[in-house]
Amino acid sequence: MQNIEDYISDNRERFLKELIELLKIPSVSADSAFSQDVLDTADAVKTALEDAGCDLAEIHDTDGYPIVYGEKIIDPDLPTVLVYGHYDVQPPDPVELWESPPFEPVIKETTLHPQGAIFARGACDDKGQMYMHVKALEFMVKTNQLPCNVKFMIEGEEEVGSNNLATYVSLNKEKLKNDIILISDTGMIANDVPSITTGLRGLSYVEVEVTGPNRDLHSGLYGGAVANPINILAKMIASLHDEDNHITIPGFYDKVEELSQEERAEMAKAPFSLENYQKALDIETVYGEKGYSTNERNSIRPTLDVNGIWGGYTGEGAKTVIASKAYAKISMRLVPHQDWQEITELFQKHFEAIAPKGVKVKVTPHHGGQGYVTPIDTVAYQAASKAYETTFGKKPIPQRSGGSIPIVSLFEKELDSKTILMGFGLDSDAIHSPNEHFGVWNYLKGIETIPYFYKYFTEMKKA
Prior knowledge:
The chain is α+β, with helices and mostly antiparallel strands. It has 13 helices and 18 strands. α2 runs parallel beside α3 (127-142). It is globular and about 80 Å long. The model has no long low-confidence stretch (mean pLDDT 95).
C-alpha cells in the first residue's frame, strides 16, 4: 500500500486524539443511566464514518440501542467486505480500582507498551479496535487505494448480548450482503508473535435466585433451624464441579469435540510462558480441568464460572441476619457443537434438581450464543495471513480464543458469510477489568495492517 506508513506517521496525533474523544463518552449499554451517552456515541460513530469516506452513513433504530451502518461502494462487481464492531462498553466497576478515571483517557508507558497505551474503558474492547477500521478506510479513500467495496455495521448492544442484532440482520440481508465479514474484537499472542483467531467459544449466561424464609431473620433466634439461602447457594455452586474441576451437569459434555493429539500438539507450538502468566496475574499456580494445559483450558474446553454472588447484609459493620434470598450470576463458555440454549436448559434442570427442601430456586436465562470455528484454507484467511506477514514480518499463528462473539455464528447462518477475526489487542490489556488499555503501537499497527487485507483479498478473489 503506497505511503501507508507515512500517512499514519503524519496523522498519528489526530488518530489518537479522535479515539480519545470517543473513549470519553461513557457508552455503558448495561446501565440505563448512560442511555443518552450510548446514543451520543452512535452519532459520533456515524460522523466518523462520513468523515472517513463512506458515501452513506445511517443510524438504524432497534428495540434497544441503534446500529450504525455505513458503506462505500466503488463497483458492485468487486468483492465486498463487511466490518462488524461495537461502540458500547462494559461498566467500569469497581471504579475505585482504576488508577485513572475510566472515561478520562490517558496515555501511559508500560513494560509491554513502551510507546504508551491508552487507558480507558473501551480502549481495546472495542472502540479502539473498531476505530482502526474507520481510519484504515480513511487512508484507502484519501489515497485512492480502496480496492473493493466496504460496509460497516457497528452495534451498541454487544456487551449485553446483542439482543436486537438478529432481527436487524434478518431484515437487512440484501443491505448487508458481502463476501467476507471482518471483525477486530479479539487479540493476538504478543506484539512480536502475531496470531489470527480461528475459533471462539459459545456462551450461556444465567442468573439464579435461592429463596428461603419469607423475610430476613435474626441469626440468633433462627440460626440452625431454618435453611440459609446463602449457605445453600454456596453448596449448590460448589457441587457444579468435581474434584478434577469437571462440570457435573448431566449431559453437559455430550457434544463437546475432543481434539486429536495432533491438533493439540499444533496448539502447543504457540509461545507460552507459564511463569510469566502466573506472574502477570500474581497467582502461585494455575487451576482448572484435570488433563489439559492452561491454553487448552481457556480455549478448547468448556467452563462454568460464577461472575457475581450476593445476598444478606454487605454494608459496613455487622448485622446478624439470615437473608431471605441469595443470588448469583453464572456464565458457561461453550465449545463448538454445544448448543447454548440446550446447555441453558440442562443447567436449569440440574440446578433446580439439586436444591434441598426448604428453599425455592429460580433460574433466569439472560443471553448466549454459539461457538465458531473458521477454516484456515480459505482465500480470506490466506489474505489476512499475508497482511500480517507484510506488516509484522512473520506469519501469524492460527489460535482459538476463549472469548465469545455470539453473533459470528448468527452471521454465517443469516448471511451465509464466513468471518475473519483480526485482533490486535493483548491478553494483558485488562478488557472488562479496571485499567483497561490498548497499546498505541497496536492501534496504529492495526490501521497499517487492515488495508493490506483488502488488497490481498481482492487480488485473490479476482485471481
